[in-house]
Design brief:
Number of helices: 4
Strand content: under 5%
Shape: elongated
Largest sheet: none
Distance between the termini: 24 Å
Helix content: over 70%
Order of helices and strands: HHHH
Number of strands: 0
Length: 101
């Protein structure tokens, strides 16, 4: 957890799981069980994690010199359910070490 890359991976997975919880647990509870409270709680947590995700994505992009196209691709994947799995696939191919000048 002491590198930008490991922080990005952790936040990406956590944010992705929170999105799945929102879609497949909280939303059905809201509409099928008439209980809006889980959407408020999980939705707030997911929103905070999503904002955090954008910050750590930007940090990793700068630190590891990922091009803007890759960063945009990762951002778009974060909007998809199960997108964190696609993000994992892409980032395993990206440079994980800081480029030294």
């Amino acid at each position: 957890m002491n590198t930008a890359f490991s922080r990005f991976r952790l936040i990406s997975i956590t944010e992705g799981i929170s999105y799945l919880l929102l879609l497949f647990v909280a939303m059905p509870m809201k509409y099928l069980a008439d209980n809006p409270y889980p959407v408020k709680v999980v939705g707030m947590g997911h929103g905070i994690l999503f904002i955090f995700f954008t910050f750590v994505l930007f940090n990793a992009m700068i630190k590891y010199r990922w091009n803007i196209g890759v960063a945009f691709q990762l951002f778009v994947y974060s909007l998809l359910p199960f997108g964190f799995l696609l993000i994992e696939k892409v980032i395993k191919k990206l440079p994980q070490e800081e480029n030294q000048k």
